[in-house]
């Protein structure tokens, strides 16, 4: 600044090495030039920096810590350096800003150290500088969660010195001119002590316990705490050495690759493709200015809440006043809770205004909505009746969505006069919390309908994944063999708590039996009765443990017959403190019941080790994934992985089931399936899928090449 403004501008996602070199050269030039009195660093196009190119971390020529010397160079400059933060300053971008002596941010800017979300920690001295600037509790929160904080919060924390509504660069230059000649020592964060806490040791210990509990085996949050601890215990240079060591551990852990894969997979699924060549690039969505939800049960309530949160006016419809009032009460409670969470934020929830949220039993009020989401219970006849009615009442362009978790979209669409506008939108419970939206196209669904459903997912801040129509679609279809194996393991000698433990240790939020108790065993029971697998429609003389020549376990049916529906009845695979209770305790009754069951059916109980539990459950799920890919129900393994991470509690640091299979090695998955299939020839779910076999035969190519090995283009795509 002075003779002419020295602006070192950078965009982190361009040729990284060149960029770092340019930054270094610019700084050295500015330092050496006596006519330059101060330096201002900004980004281009209204963005400071999103940090390093994540793809670079997986490449052999990775640049994880190469930024540190530059941050030190900035900090040690004899001339004041001011960061002008617009848009985002994330990861390495924020670390650069922390090296600066002053930080000015635009009011709409966001800042964060999201490295933890991609399996790393801030490796350019961020874990050492941030606690010195804003204190340990706030720094630890930012570093272990990776959250982006708005500029207003950054100002409160002391992360930035000033926020401006107008031109950030001009404001930064003004500040730079003002501070010329002022001592820089107090502004060099590496020289500052970490602010003391009266109970630092206890605080860090508790923080570690908390992140470990939440991380479910993910290493990065724990190592972030260790790096911040080093800042509190060691001089700056030693803290940096520790940070570097921990960064190296994470980089080679495998978890970082999985999380980075998940980052790109989530973005890749936005580029959907459907039959006839329709795709995200050619189809445009219709606007959704008003929506309706039919059915205010658990799912409907969550969906209404989601829509209101997305600022979309909603008409909520129930079959009669009794159900309507019950549903209204529940929705209002959910919305009040959501409003409380949002208190103090920029956005408010406007749900007392009938123009934004209207409750009714009158179908005619749906005549002007742009989109309807039917969320009644899983009964084909009922759904068809509703869709028939909708096609008469709704305006011609309205999109008709069904929140089914398994039923045939084409059959539902056949009840309407506009099958091209019928689409499956499978929400996950609780619908206002879970991020996944499985979007299912039927034979006649138009590209516009798919694009509109994807746009809706985005508006609801969900991850939309487009898939084809088959029983259970992708998520539940892969879940069936997994749950089936879990139940077979009980028949053979295991217990619910043992199976759950293995899968929870693997990283699942909740094991299959706890999950089944939570969801309600009656849901599957109803479906099995409808399919004629159990109940009055089961043909007389059907063997107890066989259906259509395949192994079948009647265990879940037997529990339901005893009224054990899970949490709601206080008993299921576990016992609970009361009906509606949430604390699962192993149930001696169930253990006796399993023993008697084995005796009745002449099953020799055996000890089943953790490896077998894990492999049979996971590999059968993965095997079904290969079948789904081969049939063209999903356009790539990323789709399956995004579905499992966002809808089924699959541990993100393992990258999703298909990514996991690729890390285990396809030959091993195949060999294990072959072994288990030989031991259980009447279980089709264990029979290795032909596509898996083919991939192994062609020497297990990388996951991103799998789809090119499908010999024929699937009829679905
Ligand atoms: C002047 C300042 C100098 C700064 C120097 C920096 C030097 C850095 C050196 C070392 C640093 C090491 C540590 C790190 O920085 S690790 C990376 C930390 N950053 C992140 O984790 C940010 C990740 N990205 C996001 O959170 C979002 O993408 C966001 C930037 C907030 C933008 O969100 P949104 O507007 O919703 O857009 P998309 O998410 O859809 O992204 C658009 C496309 O950009 C791709 N993308 C985004 N960030 C990265 C990234 N860091 N690396 C590679 N690619 C990235 C994304 O995949 C989208 O592309 P596509 O649709 O093709 O997948």
From TrEMBL:
Highest taxon of the lineage: Eukaryota
Recorded family membership: In the N-terminal section; belongs to the enoyl-CoA hydratase/isomerase family.
Protein name (database record): Peroxisomal bifunctional enzyme
Subunit (UniProt): Monomer.
Record keywords, A-Z: Fatty acid metabolism, Isomerase, Lipid metabolism, Lyase, Multifunctional enzyme, NAD, Oxidoreductase, Peroxisome
Annotated PANTHER family: 3-HYDROXYACYL-COA DEHYROGENASE (PTHR23309), PEROXISOMAL BIFUNCTIONAL ENZYME (PTHR23309:SF49)
Regions annotated as coiled coil: none
Cellular compartments annotated: Peroxisome
CDD domains: crotonase-like
Reactions performed catalytically: (3S)-hydroxyhexanoyl-CoA = (2E)-hexenoyl-CoA + H2O; (2S,3S)-3-hydroxy-2-methylbutanoyl-CoA = (2E)-2-methylbut-2-enoyl-CoA + H2O; (3S)-hydroxyhexadecanoyl-CoA + NAD(+) = 3-oxohexadecanoyl-CoA + NADH + H(+); (3S)-hydroxydecanoyl-CoA + NAD(+) = 3-oxodecanoyl-CoA + NADH + H(+)
Pathway linked to the protein: Lipid metabolism; fatty acid beta-oxidation
GO CC annotation: peroxisome
Lineage: Eukaryota, Metazoa, Chordata, Craniata, Vertebrata
Main location per the UniProt record: other
GO biological process: fatty acid beta-oxidation
EC number assigned by the record: 1.1.1.35, 4.2.1.17, 5.3.3.8
Gene source species: Corvus moneduloides (New Caledonian crow)
Example GO molecular function: enoyl-CoA hydratase activity
Gene from which the chain derives: EHHADH
């Amino acid at each position: 600044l002075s003779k002419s403004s020295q602006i070192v501008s950078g965009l982190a996602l361009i040729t990284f090495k060149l960029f770092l070199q340019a930054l270094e050269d610019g700084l050295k030039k500015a330092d050496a030039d006596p006519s330059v009195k101060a330096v201002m660093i900004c980004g281009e196009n209204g963005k400071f920096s999103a940090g390093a190119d994540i793809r670079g971390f997986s490449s052999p020529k990775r640049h994880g810590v190469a930024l540190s010397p530059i941050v030190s160079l900035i900090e040690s400059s004899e001339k004041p350096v001011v960061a002008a933060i617009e848009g985002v300053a994330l990861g390495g971008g924020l670390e650069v800003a922390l090296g600066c002596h002053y930080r000015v941010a635009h009011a709409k800017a966001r800042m964060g150290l999201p490295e933890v979300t991609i399996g790393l920690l801030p490796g350019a001295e961020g874990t050492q500088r941030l606690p010195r600037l804003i204190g340990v509790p706030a720094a630890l929160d930012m570093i272990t969660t990776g959250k982006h904080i708005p500029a207003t919060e950054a100002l409160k924390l002391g992360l930035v010195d000033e926020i401006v509504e107008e031109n950030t660069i001009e404001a930064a230059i003004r500040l730079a001119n003002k501070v010329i000649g002022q001592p820089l020592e107090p502004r060099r964060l590496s020289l500052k002590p970490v602010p003391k806490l009266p109970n630092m040791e206890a605080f860090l210990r508790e923080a570690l316990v908390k992140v470990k509990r939440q991380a479910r085996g993910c290493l990065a949050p724990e190592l972030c705490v260790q790096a911040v601890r080093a800042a509190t215990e060691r001089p700056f240079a030693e803290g940096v050495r520790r940070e570097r060591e921990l960064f190296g551990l994470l980089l080679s852990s495998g978890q970082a690759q999985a999380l980075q894969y998940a980052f790109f997979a989530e973005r890749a699924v936005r580029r959907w493709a459907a039959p006839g060549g329709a795709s995200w690039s050619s189809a445009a969505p219709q606007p959704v200015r008003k929506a309706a939800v039919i059915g205010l049960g658990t799912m409907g309530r969550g969906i209404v809440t989601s829509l209101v949160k997305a600022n979309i006016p909603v008409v909520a419809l129930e079959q009669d006043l009794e159900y309507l009032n019950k549903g209204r009460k529940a929705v209002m409670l959910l919305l009040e809770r959501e409003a409380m969470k949002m208190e103090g934020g920029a956005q408010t929830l406007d749900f007392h205004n009938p123009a934004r949220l209207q409750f009714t039993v009158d179908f005619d009020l749906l005549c002007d909505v742009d989109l309807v989401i039917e969320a009644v219970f899983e009964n084909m006849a009922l759904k068809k009746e509703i869709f028939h009615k909708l096609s008469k009442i709704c305006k011609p362009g309205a999109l008709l969505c069904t929140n089914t978790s398994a039923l045939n979209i084409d059959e539902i669409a056949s009840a309407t006069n506009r099958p091209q506008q019928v689409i499956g939108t499978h929400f996950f419970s609780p619908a206002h919390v879970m991020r996944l939206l499985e979007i299912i196209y039927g034979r006649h669904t138009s590209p516009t309908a798919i694009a509109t459903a994807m746009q809706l997912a985005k508006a609801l801040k969900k991850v939309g994944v487009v898939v084809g129509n088959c029983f259970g679609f992708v998520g539940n279809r892969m879940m069936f063999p997994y749950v089936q194996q879990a139940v077979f393991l009980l028949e053979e000698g295991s217990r619910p708590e043992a199976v759950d433990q293995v899968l929870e240790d693997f990283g699942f939020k909740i094991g299959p039996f706890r999950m089944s108790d939570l969801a309600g065993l009656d849901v599957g029971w109803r479906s099995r009765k409808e399919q004629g697998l159990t109940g009055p429609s089961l043909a007389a003389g059907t063997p107890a443990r066989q259906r259509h020549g395949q192994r079948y376990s009647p265990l879940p049916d037997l529990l339901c017959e005893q009224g054990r529906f899970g949490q709601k009845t206080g008993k299921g695979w576990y016992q609970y403190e009361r009906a509606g209770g949430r604390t699962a305790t192993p149930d001696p009754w169930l253990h006796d019941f399993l023993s008697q069951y084995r005796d009745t059916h002449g099953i020799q109980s055996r000890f089943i080790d953790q490896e077998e539990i894990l492999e049979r459950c996971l590999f059968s799920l993965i095997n079904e994934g290969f079948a789904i890919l081969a049939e063209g129900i999903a356009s790539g393994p990323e789709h399956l992985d995004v579905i499992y991470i966002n809808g089924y509690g699959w541990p993100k640091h393992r990258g999703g089931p298909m990514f996991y299979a690729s890390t285990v090695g396809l030959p091993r998955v195949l060999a294990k399936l072959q072994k288990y299939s030989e031991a259980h020839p009447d279980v089709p779910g264990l029979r290795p899928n032909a596509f898996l076999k083919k991939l192994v035969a062609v020497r297990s190519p990388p996951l991103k090449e799998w789809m090119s090995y499908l010999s024929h283009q699937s009829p679905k795509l």
